Write the structure tokens for this entry.
Amino acid sequence: MKIRHAVTIVFAVVCACGLGSQLSGIPSVDPRRVEITAKRFSFDPGVVTLKKGEPVVLVLKSNDVPHGIRVRELGLDVKVSKGGSAEARFTPNQVGDFVGHCSVFCGAGHGSMSIAFHVVN
Amino acid sequence: MVLLLAALSFCGCKAKAPTTAETRLMWGMKHKVLIGNKKLRNPLQASSLTIAEGKEAFSHYCIACHGLDGQNTGVPFADRMAPPVPSLASDEVQQYTDGQLKAVIDDGVWPSGMPASKGILSDDEIWSIVVFLRHLPKPGSLGEPEMYSH
């Protein structure tokens, strides 16, 4: 009886280890890194194409004054300090074209400082 | 033309308070004729987030004339302009539709000191300001703009 229990335990451990090694072998989805540079009164690039469901790390850099990007539909809201860099993580969950605007007042052309996100399947 | 020049020579270019008749005439003209977009709807719903965003956008430079609360608190020249800067909580302003408020912020108002903000602020920010205007804080509750405290 003891031997039977021991065999069962060993079998369970072997199975668990095997499953564990299989799980660890599943490739994780690395977020896509998108770098955007902001300066009065434009973003570079001005158009970004993303995939629905693909996690994104957006890196926003400023070449001059504080800037930001807000896109309500994508849940994106990131602000960067003067000459600095900031990151935001998000996953687009709908297909379409979305326009973001600078979310930190940066001068006379602030209202026209925009960036387009194309989210595709 | 001669009469106009004669009137100007008496009045000069002084900024003086408008008469009741002038105020009534301009109210009617602005609300019913001059300021369009009457039927345009605000795409933003009022929420604590959009009110806060509107308050932030409003703080960029609207506060120089309208104060932090939109009711001219701490603005030393508000009643010395012609016409005076209105309280944004007043019926005169609140009776505009959301679309008209957007038009006022976009294009400014002549004759008054209200400048056009299209291009300086984004559409999204202007709509959020309209939300804020519908939910103004109590007069004086936000203090006065820092620029007038020094």
The longest helix of chain B spans residues 20-34. The CA atoms of residues 43 and 127 of chain B lie 7 Å apart.
